[in-house]
Sequence to fold (93 residues):
Amino acid sequence: MEENYEFSDDSYTALGAAGVAWQDAVFVLRQSRPVVRRHIGAVLNVAGRDRQGRWLAVALIELDSHRDDQYTVAGARYLDDAEIASIERMLKG
Fold:
């Protein structure tokens, strides 16, 4: 099943406050490769490169524990240099 990502008014507000274009969040979720995914409980974090090549982490919350793969975007932020270095080491193996 393909994951579905929803954006609410709160999603757009949070992205705007973080200086992240919603198009970049969608790009990370749908097209960026490679990505680093972390799923803990109802929270999914996806980090990947945005349309300009910057590392962006998108935070999502599962809408309903009975409906797998349905998420709402809660926010996003650009990663700092230490986080980027850590991901790059991890991807190199």
